[in-house]
């Protein structure tokens, strides 16, 4: 375990990852919600119909998909950013050590084992998400469909991790680790 749990490098990487993940989630929610190609196609079709222009549903959905494409490029670029942040985080962990107790140790409490396992599972699944997302963009055509099928599942573990993480931090701040929220913002005080 590293001596200063919330040093500057840790905090910068933590918040960069947090905001990048939230931005990626925003693009996903926009894509499946307001900017859904079928929903947008329906709006396009209805408005064109008002002006006397007829367009079929499939073509309207294609236009809807084209309209949201610039937004989706931001998702891809945020994914590349996330790959860089992930590599930085792993390098930082290798240099400074981890901030949680070893879940494999018999001396580690069940609560700390759970925290350790949550982080191990999160970083493993994050690696899978980043690899599959990269392969969807840059891999061979015959793998893209399967990679996309795996990549889409990322939303579930990310949302679960965010809930566990925020819930755990709030519980810790209200209990045994008072001030943990201010430490991740302003750092450890000597």
Write the layout of secondary structure elements.
Layout: H1 8-32, H2 37-50, H3 57-96, H4 110-138, H5 141-151, H6 154-174, H7 180-186
Helix pairs in contact: 1-3, 2-3, 3-4, 4-5, 4-6
Offer a concise description of the structure.
77% of the residues lie in helices and 0% in strands.
Task: Please characterize this protein's 3D structure.
The chain has 190 residues and is an all-alpha fold. It is built from seven helices and no strands. Helix 4 packs antiparallel against helix 6. The longest helix is centred in the middle third of the chain and has 40 residues. The chain starts with 7 loop residues before the first helix and ends with a helix. The relative contact order is 0.11.
What are the main properties of this structure?
0% strand; mainly alpha; single chain
